[in-house]
Design brief:
With about 200 residues, this protein is α+β, with helices and mostly antiparallel strands. The protein contains 8 helices and 4 strands; from the N terminus they run E-H-E-H-E-E-H-H-H-H-H-H. Helix 1 links the parallel strand 1 and strand 2. Helix 4 runs antiparallel to helix 5 and helix 4 packs parallel to helix 6. The longest helix has 27 residues.
């Protein structure tokens, strides 16, 4: 398998962490295709018409995207406990993973607003709107932080990668001050070898 990814992408990091935690990382060739979001990458576009990373090329030659699909596919390949469980336990994990992904979507849109637009083009209303989604998501994750305990699952990985991205790109937000439960969760989770190995430079 080949994983086309951007080293700084929190979505790609989520896939890499899951692959490491399930023992699948050694079966995957990592292909770093980092570019600015405004740069066309024909190699990526040929695999994913949306032009977004990550993309997993399976051993059978099928291109899978986005990160949620890739994680579910990888979770079907290993012999250990499923990180996305079956039955009633599935829905809380999916819900929290989706909330973490939504937080990241908003954070990335805020990041791109500052990265690709000149100061004159930037919209303070847009930025405030996206960061508002980030803060509301953090508040809800703090409320549900108890769901992030117990055996490893996809929600824990997704939330940890989202919080890691905030540290990486939005260090000035100081999200820990109002979210002590999340802070404690992340402090412990970030020590996992999978997180250490995938931390963006």
């Amino acid at each position: 398998m080949q994983l086309f990814y951007a080293a700084a992408s929190p979505f790609a990091r989520k896939v890499r962490v899951l692959a490491a935690e399930t023992g699948l990382l050694e079966r995957i060739e990592l292909v770093d295709t980092s570019v600015l979001p405004t740069t066309l990458n024909e190699r990526v576009n040929a695999l994913n018409p949306l032009g977004k990373l990550p993309v997993l090329l399976t051993d059978g030659g099928e291109a899978l995207y986005d990160s949620r699909v890739i994680c579910e596919y990888l979770d079907s390949l290993h012999d250990g406990a499923r990180l996305l469980p079956d039955g009633d336990a599935r829905w809380p994990v999916l819900r929290l993973a989706a909330l973490a992904d939504g937080l990241l979507d908003a954070a990335l849109l805020a990041r791109y607003e500052k990265l690709v637009r000149t100061p004159e083009q930037q919209s303070s209303v847009w930025l405030e709107g996206q960061l508002g989604k980030v803060w509301r998501s953090l508040a809800e994750l703090e409320r549900q932080v108890g769901e992030l305990s117990g055996p490893l699952d996809l929600a824990q990985i997704a939330v940890a990668c989202a919080l890691g991205y905030l540290d990486f790109r939005f260090a000035d937000l100081d999200w820990r001050a109002e979210h002590p439960g999340l802070s404690n969760f992340y402090r412990a989770f970030a020590q996992r070898p999978s997180m250490q190995a995938s931390a963006p430079a």
